[in-house]
């Protein structure tokens, strides 16, 4: 399946197959502008009901590095700047993408310096139920409050709080770098498009976006 990106800019992923089923399925992102075209995610410190982390954002350098790029952006909130090529090797990333969130979590732990800093959480169903959504909200708030970002493996189409659609039918990885209204809305750092580097979506939409896949959280 080719990744279907419903954006106003021209991002292409030519001739690359990706599976959409299951947390273990590869996830491929759209081609993005070079990493040098960095865009800063807004990062003011907030009261406890809302908080955003300081992201030193970089776009992914090719269409299949969304996993390493999302991980690199997530680690940047801890003041780390890890080369995406190094992480891609550690994750086993190929032109088919990064296979699973379970390949992301060990790298987050290694670079954070703690073997148990992150764990993988799966949402196996095709749509998240209330319990899974509540857990995701709790996980995001706790992780961000600890000064870390969540990395999520998503697939399909969702709509942000401004009504803009974001579509990754073949799969994608994103970083969750903040929350508002006690976690009912979350901030996304998206490596695929520096023109849409940061946006907000409801945690309900995020949970359904992750459904059939998973996320790395503290």
TrEMBL record:
Keywords: Signal. It comes from the Bacteria. It holds the Pfam family Peptidase_C39_2. The keyword Protease does not apply. Gene3D superfamilies: Cysteine proteinases. Residues 1-29 form the signal peptide. Residues 53-192 form the Peptidase C39-like domain. The keyword Signal applies. This is Peptidase C39-like domain-containing protein. It comes from Phytohabitans flavus. The lineage of its organism: Bacteria, Bacillati, Actinomycetota, Actinomycetes, Micromonosporales.
């Amino acid at each position: 399946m080719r990744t279907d990106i419903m954006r106003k800019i021209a991002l292409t992923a030519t001739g690359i197959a990706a599976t959409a089923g299951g947390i273990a399925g590869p996830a491929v992102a759209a081609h993005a502008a070079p990493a040098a075209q960095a865009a800063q995610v807004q990062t003011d410190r907030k009261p406890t009901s809302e908080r955003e982390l300081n992201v030193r954002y970089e776009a992914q350098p090719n269409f299949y590095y969304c996993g390493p790029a999302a991980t690199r952006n997530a680690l940047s909130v801890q003041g780390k700047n890890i080369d995406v090529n190094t992480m891609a090797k550690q994750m086993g990333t190929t032109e088919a993408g990064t296979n699973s969130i379970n390949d992301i979590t060990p790298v987050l732990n290694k670079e954070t310096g703690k073997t148990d800093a992150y764990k993988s959480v799966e949402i196996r169903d095709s749509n998240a139920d209330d319990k899974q959504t509540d857990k995701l909200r709790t996980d995001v708030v706790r992780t961000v409050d600890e000064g870390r970002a969540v990395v999520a493996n998503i697939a399909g189409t969702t709509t942000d709080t401004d009504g803009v659609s974001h579509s990754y039918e073949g799969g994608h990885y994103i970083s969750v770098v903040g929350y508002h209204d006690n976690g009912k809305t979350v901030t996304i750092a998206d490596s695929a498009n520096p023109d849409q580097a940061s946006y907000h979506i409801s945690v309900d939409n995020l949970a359904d976006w992750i459904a059939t896949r998973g996320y790395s959280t503290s």
